[in-house]
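Same chain as my last thread, 503 residues:
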Amino acid sequence: MMEEQEETETKPLRQDAAADSHVRRNNPKKGFLEMALRPIKWLKMLSEELHWSFVLGVVIVYGISQGFGVGLSRVSTQYYMKDEQKVQPSQAQVLIGIIHFPWIVKPLWGLLTDVVPILGYRRRPYFIFAGFLGVISMLVLSLHKNLHLGFALLSLVAGSAGIAIADVAIDACVTQHSISHPSLAGDMQSLCGLSSSIGALLGFALSGFFVHLAGAKGVFGFLIIPASLVVLVGTLLRESRVRNFAYGRVKEKFLDASKAMWTTLKCRDVWRPCLYMYLSLALSLHIHEGMFYWYTDAKDGPSFSQEIVGSIFSVGAVGSLFGVLLYQNFLKNHPFRDILFWAQLLSGISGLLDLVLVLRINLKLGMPDYFFVVIDEAVSRMFGRIKWMPLLVLSSKLCPSGIEGTFFALIMSIDHIGLLSSAWSGGLVLHMLNVTRTQFDNLWVAIIIRSLLRLIPIGFLFLIPRSDPNLSILPSEMLRTKRVNDVLEPENIEMTTLVLASD
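reply #2:
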């Protein structure tokens, strides 16, 4: 009977598929039109199931604020530090690490959005606050002439904090909808990933032209638009109001959530992978600012223009996207250790491509600078993404029940501490080797040190579990942990009613 029922249920699907195939064969124009309209139908379906304001929020926060905005701001910040503030490469390396400090305290933003509603709302006020923070910081950077380095750094940190707070808030919305609509969890992640990738491609592709036409400060003025759109998300997002909230218990909830996270971190199956993630990132020395100054200022270098620098980063974004596709289609079912071994090894080897460029070996081989740099950027970003994807999957499996969102933010903050350590140690190496705005004789030494350090994490792979990537890692008792004082309970987050309100 079950087989007959399954056959009965699948028969209409087969008939529909056959009909679609028949239409495409006999009417190619109509078939092409249906394929072109498929993304629109997909977005319409998500808007009907999850409410249009949520879909709009994902596109704005991931696509415009993070993808497009960060793509523009990365290039403009590099030129701002080099041309406006006149800082050395090693100093710029340290300062750009400080700019990303708000991402280290992501668990704090997560706890605030989960535990402390403002005027009865848990998400909307944080979007509005994040947007205004970004608008004010970009206004200061774009309008103030001869801004002191300290105030400029403070403004850049504030802008980064605005993006981080909006990121945490939209992550909470996605997590909640994944719980209430588990069948659409994959579609939501696809929406997030596509929005971010497309936005980053556009941002990096246009960044060089914008910097050339308006200067770094002009680009900061343009970045007011993405920040304003985040305010729009907070205004339009449909969210039920929390009534009679016990603000007197906020401290208790903070303490309970903190104790739960500390208990989880002490688990051997959790702290060992977290330690590996930190070491893997911290030992991948970050010397991008030294390479950037060499690209643009070195007498014997390629002397790339702003447009070319932006196009190089955009090709890197394509390489990163290709790495995601490789992992999704061919590598996701392989053990974590195997993928990380090869990814770490190839990452170290690919770093030597910079050595070929700096020593001008590529010119001796007849390879133009731009062609070689594009290959270098795409390959490096691809291997970096292949290494990052299993770490993300592993991180999601280390989160205990009840504090999933906040603990995932904690793991991400550990990763950002690793990136900060990488940036600061890279700046120290550039300083010790006397790599300055005009002196690049020892840059090749920094490249060799970085490539060798990238191989060291291979010796720490024993910290990564050998388990099947499709199985749980945490002990079963942690997966049955009760929620911490309603911190992340769906009925308290009040997001599921968005769908009901739209019916």
